[in-house]
Amino acid sequence: MAGRLLLVWLLSLAGLDVQASVRQAPEPELRALLQRTVAEADSFQDRFEAQVWLLDMSTRLTPYIADPQQRLELLRLVHREASKAGLRPELVLALIHTESHFDRFAISSAGAQGMMQVMPFWKAELGRPQDNLTDNATNLRYGCTILSFYLRKENGNLSRALARYNGSLGRQAYPTKVIGFWYDFWYVKP
Questions:
Q1: How far apart are CA 86 and CA 62, in angstroms?
Q2: Predicted structure pTM score
Q3: Residues 164, 175: Cα–Cα separation, whole Å
Q4: Torsion angle of alpha carbons 39, 88, 169, 136, nearest 10°?
Q5: Angle at 139 between CA 138 and CA 143, to 5 degrees
Q6: Is 99 tagged catalytic?
Q7: What digits encode the pLDDT tens for the residues 16-44?
């Protein structure tokens, strides 16, 4: 019964028709996939937190990534890399939303690559020319580390850190867009 109440609550947060959703049990494959993902999610405080966050974010991510397994794998990576870098995972999702709309093969006109649009010169700077910036784990590690560095450099000023990340320091359009996606689409109260 507690599981059903949790599902009703999560579905209501996502804006879904709770009555219709409760009548249909989750697909067994999705349930098994979520269980495996939760078991592999090493950056969460506990299993319940992992289940709630992954289900909530997976629902929000559906318009951008149709495959449930790909969504959960990406979310686990985002949570892990953001947590390692001391960032809120939802902020990283907002940045990805802004930068690439979750297209791991995105390449900007300036040459930035992957979901977090990391510039390839970073590979040479680190002496790692073999790194593939379209690999989500690699891209997230680079992007989260870079954003975390800029956030520390700017003494916690998120707007300035985001502008540095984007190479647009002094302009507000980019930080405003990322913060807008964060608060309007991805934000979860701590």
A1: 26
A2: 0.78
A3: 9
A4: 10
A5: 120
A6: yes
A7: 333 333 334 445 665 554 455 445 556 77
Look up residue 71 and give its two tokens.
């969504």
State the catalytic residue, choosing from 81, 99, 125, 154: 99
Identify the burial level of 45 via C-beta atoms within 10 angstroms of its C-beta, where 0-12 means exposed, 13-18 middle and 19 or more buried. Answer: exposed
What SS3 class is residue 118?
strand
The three-class DSSP label of residue 40 is helix
Distances (CA, A) of 28 to 24, 31, 35, 50: 11, 5, 10, 19
User: What pLDDT score was predicted for residue 2?
Assistant: 40
* 36 alpha-carbon distance from chain centroid: 19
What gap in Å lies between CA 163 and CA 154, rounded to an integer? 10
The SS3 of residue 154 is coil
- For 92, the token pair is 């990283």
Residue 171's Cβ-count burial label (10 Å; 0-12, 13-18, 19+) is: exposed
CB-based contact 116:96 (threshold 8 Å) = yes
DSSP SS3 for 113: strand
- Helix or strand run (H / E) with residue 157: none
Write out the two tokens for 158.
């998120």
Identify the structural domains of the chain with CATH numbers, from first to last. 2-186 (1.10.530)
Residue 158 pLDDT > 90:
yes
Task: Return the bridge partners of 125, or none.
Answer: none
pLDDT of the residue at 39: 53
CA distance 92 to 10: 21
